[in-house]
Amino acid sequence: MTSKESIINSFIWVSVERISTIGLLFIGTIVLAHFLSPSAFGLVGILTIFTAISMMLIDSGMGGSLIKEKNVSESDYSTLFIYNVGISIIIYLILYFSSGYVAELYCLPELKDLLRILSLTIIFNAVSIVQRIKLTRSFDFKVMCIITVISMLFAILISILLAYKGFGVWALIMQQVLQSLFNSLFYFIYVRFIPSFVFDRKSFRKHFAFGANLMCATLINTVNTNISSSIIGKFFSLQQTGFFAQSNKLYTMPTNIVSSIVDKAVFPILSKKNDLNEIISTISMLSRNIYLITFPLFSIVIVLSSPIIVTFLGDEWQEAAWILSILCCGGIPLVVKLMLRNALKTLGETYCIFKCEFICFIIGLVILLVSASISFRAIIWGVVCNNIILMIAFMIAISNLSFASKY
């Protein structure tokens, strides 16, 4: 199979996976929104940042390094497995014993048990990272698609049943926990990976060195993306937090599809190429096609946010319409930033990514804190401003890189 054919085949299956999972998630959200109150979604929104940050700390960018590597030994896989599982257990214990302090911080006692159960997803996801890397290296995206879709379908159906039976916010928590559990089980069934429990320090240093900058950059980006819900949950009502969490989930769906397609389908292939012009040409072609789809989509949602929210979620969620409309204004620069970031990642410029993310995080944090002292609406516009700043930062980085390559 040629490189072009590999990209097209990978692109198709990853697209099917993401569109299917986003579609299932969207349908599940619609059904659950009719059984659960905005406050239930607000509780989960507050906790999202804790599990999101934890997941970023587990892989440390080493997975990307193994995907990029031409020859990977079993000791490399074993080293990554031991590191992932070990770190995930440590992080889970930290979250478990600090959950009481989190509940006290937000004056919401129920957060204690919710965080302890939700954090199990960290361990479940950690034990299957090696299997996902093996399938990615062999470009077996069809199997990954089937596993992901089936896992999400089972998890959503069970969560809807729990919501119908009156379990409230626990339906949302169990959806995430069960999805990660099913994923891990199916990956273990299909990929017969048995770790040798050999920890190769040389291998660890090599792959950790590659992923360190990328891990820090991704960690900062994760905090930057999820901190708004936690700040809103602290200074505003739980209902407003729920409105924001749902609107944020809806507007990031297109960007999540783009991110997964590029990371899973395109990066493994282009990262092994040495021709800079071919890499840039392929990324430019993909970017144009993605922009043609996402830009009109965001524009439509901006104009029709109110009927979309009322039609799919119900009258109770009417207030989320203006939030979704504003957030979608920041969706366009977010997609541009995402494509530029992946271009830098493919070119191996992980330190450049880290610098951009770090500078923008500081600026974004200032914007968030200032806007939080003004109003709830100001926070929403602050998210849009932050996305625009991120886009500009990555544009400058790409421009400087292009200029440097010429001279």
TrEMBL record:
The chain crosses the membrane at residues 12-35, 41-59, 80-102, 114-131, 143-164, 176-199, 290-314, 320-340, 352-372, 378-403. InterPro entries: Poly_Biosynth_Transport. Signal peptide: none annotated. It comes from the Bacteria. GO terms for cellular component: plasma membrane. Keywords: Cell membrane, Membrane, Transmembrane, Transmembrane helix. It holds the Pfam family Polysacc_synt_3. It is found in: Cell membrane. It is a multi-pass membrane protein. Its main location: membrane. Belongs to the polysaccharide synthase family. PANTHER family: LIPOPOLYSACCHARIDE BIOSYNTHESIS PROTEIN WZXC (PTHR30250:SF10), PST FAMILY PREDICTED COLANIC ACID TRANSPORTER (PTHR30250). This is Polysaccharide biosynthesis protein C-terminal domain-containing protein. It comes from Bacteroides cellulosilyticus CL02T12C19.
